[in-house]
Amino acid sequence: MLQRRPLAQREKDLTRRYLVWCYKTTKEELDKIDRYFTQAMVDNFLILQLTNLEGYKSSPDDAPLRKAVDEFIGYARGKKAKAEERKFADIAQSALQPGYQYLKVRFKAVEQAIVQFLGRQELDKIRGLYEEEMTSRILQAREHA
Questions:
Q1: Is 8 in a helix, a strand, or coil?
Q2: Which of 12, 59, 83, 103 could be a cystine partner for 7, CB 3.0 to 4.6 Å?
């Protein structure tokens, strides 16, 4: 571990801002990929619910409800396939894409740097602030981005 002298308040403020920026930018890039895998879990549940609806099961192929559900199924499958391409380097999903792997190790290093320079409590605080910000963005969005 690096030896460090105590930081002056100005240095600590600048260091904190830089580490918050590193955390935010790295986490956003990771989330752009990882969120699709959590969305896939929810999408699969929704698909199960929708395809078990009586109106879906008994409707002809060209019925509006069936068409809407089938379009959602296609959308969800396509979204997951694109996410798998961005995360995995092979079809067997045994190797990560180099860019994704870099983001994972960078994010871990950023978290370690936060603990090193600012302490564990500050890491927890930054995590909480990030989640609040992301949730706030979603709730304030006027359109799907």
A1: coil
A2: 12
- The CA-atom distances, in angstroms, between 21 and each of 15, 27, 48, 126 are 10, 10, 40, 10
pLDDT-derived band at 2, boundaries 50, 70, 90: low
- Written as six digits, the tokens of 110 are 């950023």
The count of structural domains within the chain is: 1
Reported as a pLDDT band with limits 50, 70 and 90, residue 1 is low
Q: Which amino acid, residue 20?
A: V
**94: which 2 tokens?**
């045994």
Give me the half-sphere count of Cα atoms (radius 13 Å) on the Cβ side of residue 109: 8
Give this prediction's pTM: 0.81
| pLDDT band at residue 6 under the 50/70/90 scheme | confident
Give domain status of residue 7, yes or no: no
Residue 111's identity, in one-letter code, is: E
Is residue 40 within 8 A of residue 80, CB to CB? The reply is yes
| pLDDT value for 3 | 61
Asked if residue 126 is part of any domain, the answer here is: yes
Give a yes or no: residue 145 inside a domain.
no
- Assigned domain for 6 exists: no
